């Protein structure tokens, strides 16, 4: 088969629109400001409730411990969600890719392409959501402290009742910064877990965590606010204002920043994973370094850079893992994920026939590398190599065409593929 013109790279996943996000964030901030104003307007009622409650609970030391432990638990939950919903390489740079170098040297779109791009977009959305939410939580805490200095409301325990643990003068009451932070962190957990529901099966927090973590975060935030009132540190309307400020600021940050961060993450994640994956032990050894391993388990290739090679296969079975051997190192720039790579190559099934090569056609091919546009063995084996190198790749089925193969090109399902690749240049 002669597919001389490579297919284009898979289309970029659609990014959330920026302007509607900013407009929605503005609306949330207006609603948040209104909620804070309403809380401030309930000052008199709040003082009445505070006095009747605090005279019975102000001396309870456990209330202070609940507030501290609740806030600490919320920080731990935000970090736990980041770990559970972290990007997986199999989703970001899928083995088998959205398109694959194969017969005719062209990049061939597979039926998995749309699913792979959806997985990448979902992962980028989770990363962007978590980052935006954390930024929002930090901003909310800063706004709370700034608003305190503007309003300068005395604490109830300075004037209304005596309690065991009363903050010192100058540490104003409205709004409750502890509650602001707690509400912001709980909102960060909720929005991140919600975004993670779109991840492919096995790549997210899991059904149990998805159901349990959001309500646990909300309950912890409520406990922090209630404990601050119970210990006498805040009036109820301080806590209500803090809850509104923390929740609203995080939601506004996610709405405003996520449309900007998703495209950045969509481009950055494949680069990061493809670059890191290629540094595993045994993937970047030269022919000199591999010595006996090369001669014992991998094919021998004749010719020098730019010449059509001939492969001689050893006795024994094909390696189960990806093998990368630099037959002759180049001295050009390193190939980076996202580069448009120009190569000459020859491809042959293990102990089978040559299914394609560019040397006979007399023209090299170009394709994006390291971003899931080609089979996984090419992404992992070529990123990080210098331009001018001749590289031998032994690619197991799970990083090639898998069980389906490419029958029309003579590639059977489960075939291990061997390529000799001359890296001509990048752009």
From TrEMBL:
All residue ranges annotated as the PPIase FKBP-type domain in the record: 338-427
Reaction catalysis annotation: [protein]-peptidylproline (omega=180) = [protein]-peptidylproline (omega=0)
Protein known as: peptidylprolyl isomerase
MF terms in GO: peptidyl-prolyl cis-trans isomerase activity
Matches recorded under Pfam families: FKBP_C, PAP2
Disordered as annotated region, ranges: 95-115
CDD domains: PAP2_like
Source organism (scientific name): Cellulomonas triticagri
Disulfide bond recorded as keyword: no
Keyword set includes Isomerase: yes
SMART domains associated with the record: acidPPc
SUPFAM superfamilies in the cross-refs: Acid phosphatase/Vanadium-dependent haloperoxidase (SSF48317), FKBP-like (SSF54534)
InterPro entries the UniProt entry points to: FKBP2/11, PAP2/HPO, PAP2/HPO_sf, PPIase_dom_sf, PPIase_FKBP_dom
Key words, A-Z: Isomerase, Membrane, Rotamase, Transmembrane, Transmembrane helix
Segments traversing the membrane: 21-41, 61-85, 119-140, 177-196, 208-227, 239-261
């Amino acid at each position: 088969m002669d597919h001389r013109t490579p297919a284009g790279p898979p289309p970029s996943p659609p990014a959330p629109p920026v302007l509607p996000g900013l407009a929605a964030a503005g609306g949330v901030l207006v609603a948040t400001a209104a909620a804070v104003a309403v809380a401030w307007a309930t000052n008199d009622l709040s003082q009445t409730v505070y006095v009747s409650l605090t005279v019975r609970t102000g001396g309870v030391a456990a209330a202070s411990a609940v507030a501290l432990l609740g806030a600490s638990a919320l920080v731990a939950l935000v970090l736990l969600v980041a770990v559970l919903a972290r990007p997986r390489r199999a989703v970001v740079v899928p083995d088998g890719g959205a398109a694959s170098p194969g017969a005719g040297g062209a990049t061939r779109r597979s039926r998995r392409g749309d699913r792979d791009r959806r997985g990448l977009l979902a992962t980028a959305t989770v990363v962007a959501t978590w980052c935006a939410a954390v930024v929002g939580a930090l901003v909310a805490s800063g706004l709370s402290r700034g608003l305190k200095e503007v309003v300068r409301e005395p604490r109830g325990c300075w004037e209304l009742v005596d309690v065991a643990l009363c903050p010192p003068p100058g540490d104003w009451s409205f709004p409750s910064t502890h509650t602001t932070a707690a509400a912001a962190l709980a909102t960060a957990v909720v929005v991140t877990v919600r975004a993670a529901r779109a991840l492919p099966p096995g790549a997210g927090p899991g059904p149990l965590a998805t159901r349990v973590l959001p309500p646990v975060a909300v309950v912890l935030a409520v406990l922090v606010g209630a404990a601050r009132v119970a210990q006498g540190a805040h009036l109820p309307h301080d806590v209500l204002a803090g809850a509104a400020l923390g929740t609203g600021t995080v939601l506004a940050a996610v709405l405003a920043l996520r449309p900007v961060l998703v495209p950045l993450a969509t481009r950055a994640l494949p680069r990061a994973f493809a670059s890191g994956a290629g540094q595993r032990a045994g993937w970047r050894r030269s022919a000199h370094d591999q010595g006996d391993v090369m001669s014992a388990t991998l094919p021998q290739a004749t010719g020098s850079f730019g010449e059509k090679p001939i492969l001689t296969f050893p006795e024994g079975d094909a390696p189960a893992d990806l093998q990368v051997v630099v037959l002759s190192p180049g001295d050009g720039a390193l190939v980076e994920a996202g580069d448009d790579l120009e190569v000459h190559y020859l491809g042959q099934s293990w102990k089978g026939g040559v299914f394609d090569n560019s040397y006979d056609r007399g023209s090299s091919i170009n394709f994006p590398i390291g971003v899931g546009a080609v089979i996984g063995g090419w992404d992992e084996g070529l990123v990080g190599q210098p331009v001018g190198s001749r590289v031998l790749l032994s690619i197991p089925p799970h990083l090639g065409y898998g069980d389906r193969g490419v029958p029309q090109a003579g590639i059977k399902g489960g075939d291990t593929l061997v390529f000799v690749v001359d890296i001509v240049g990048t752009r």
